[in-house]
Amino acid sequence: MKNILLINCYFGKFPWYFNLFLKSCSYNASVDFIIFSDDITEYNLPKNVEIVPFTLRNFNALATEKLKFEVNVEKAYKLCDFKPAYGIIFSEFVNEYEFWGMTDIDIIFGRIREFITEELLNNYEVISVRNDYPTGSFMLFKNNNEINNLFKKSKDYKKVLTSDIHYCFDECNFKHEFLQYGGDIFDIECEVESMHYVIKKEEQMNNLKAHFDFLVIEGMPGQLKWDKGFLSFKHEFEILLHHLILFKGNKYTRKKAWKRVPDKFYIDKFLVRKANLSSFNGLFKNTIYNKIVPNLKKSLFKIDFFLSRQFKLKIMDLRKQALIQSKVKVVYNSEFETHNSIGQNKQPKIFKSILFKDSFFTPFIPNLRYKLKDNNQFDAIHINGNVRLIK
């Protein structure tokens, strides 16, 4: 059996779902995990998981040494762009493994080896768990010099790794939607040559064999069950992993840390619960957190929009020069305090949220509330609780 090491860098306090991640790792004993982190909290770690004390300063020093140019990452999120280079940066840690990979911790694994088979490992050098683009949340690379240096085939890799800008280099330079609908990465203009571009180009030249297959759930479908390492959907399909990217960010989900994770639990649309629905406790929590609380919050959203539209309070403190949401452009200028403006010609009004600080609506999108963040970026909050950063 080919040995595998999965690598993660996480700076800051581990989040509420970390113990769920660890529990799912514990049932994948034939796969090793290493996490570089500055969180000194003591955890009851599975034997196959190691946390290495590490800081962002340590990362910058090591990356500078290994990549042979100055690296100065200031914000941890930028590390996503460095994931394809982990085979070089952490070469001392991966040298005993036949495959290394990147993993996020907002993941609940099923049975990894049931999907990442010896046949796959024998026949492919790069393995992604989506069919349409590389999965930065979980992806495998054969541990050899050529594949470890694959990221250098991008003409932009130095630009990416020396910039403060996050380019989504590990995946597809933010072209997810285009690729999800069957687009070809060579048919769309990109700011940089991402790993998707590199992998597809090398495939065309017969320089490597990459495997793309849809083995994950990333949305919020509910009806997931984790039972001693076996992860299933609707009691019908076994899946490799559930990526909590939407679940953890949704405004309606119950985010409660468990000190002890049971051998069986359920992942609903807005709740992770221990008890099954045939018990009073399971039925009660399902009713409260999956039905009553979300519906109340949706009603509050509608009331907020209605009242805000009636009062039409002016927004006096938007600090960003421009916001683009689809074809909507919010323009800030010297006249903004008297013209809450959207668009460039006949500019309809925008109006302040009555109930939420630093938030506003547009009259023609009642299901979205925009929130101004401290870093002058905007979140678009949907009535269903999903949150999307507006770039």
Notes on the structure:
A hairpin with a 2-residue loop joins strand 16 and strand 17 (328-331). Helix content is 26%, strand content 22%. It has three domains: 4-217, Spore Coat Polysaccharide Biosynthesis Protein SpsA, Chain A (Alpha-Beta Complex), CATH 3.90.550; 224-292, no CATH class; 309-390, no CATH class. It starts with a strand and ends with a strand. The longest helix has 32 residues, at 280-311. By secondary structure, it is of the alpha+beta class. The protein contains twelve helices and 22 strands. The strands form five sheets. It has a seven-stranded mixed β-sheet, with helices on both faces. A five-stranded antiparallel β-sheet has the order 12-11-10-14-15, covered by helices on one side. The model is unreliable at 319-348 (pLDDT under 50). The radius of gyration is 23 Å and the shape is globular. Pfam families: DUF6625.
Topology of helices and strands:
Blueprint: E1 4-10, H1 18-26, E2 31-37, E3 49-53, H2 56-67, H3 86-89, H4 91-94, E4 99-103, E5 107-109, H5 112-115, H6 118-123, E6 126-128, E7 138-142, H7 145-148, H8 157-161, H9 176-180, H10 195-204, E8 210-212, E9 216-217, E10 224-227, E11 230-233, E12 237-238, E13 241-243, H11 245-249, E14 264-267, E15 272-273, H12 280-311, E16 322-325, E17 328-331, E18 351-352, E19 359-361, E20 368-372, E21 378-382, E22 387-390
Parallel strand pairs: 1-2, 1-4, 2-3, 6-8, 9-13
Antiparallel strand pairs: 4-7, 5-13, 6-7, 10-11, 10-14, 11-12, 14-15, 16-17, 18-19, 19-20, 20-21, 21-22
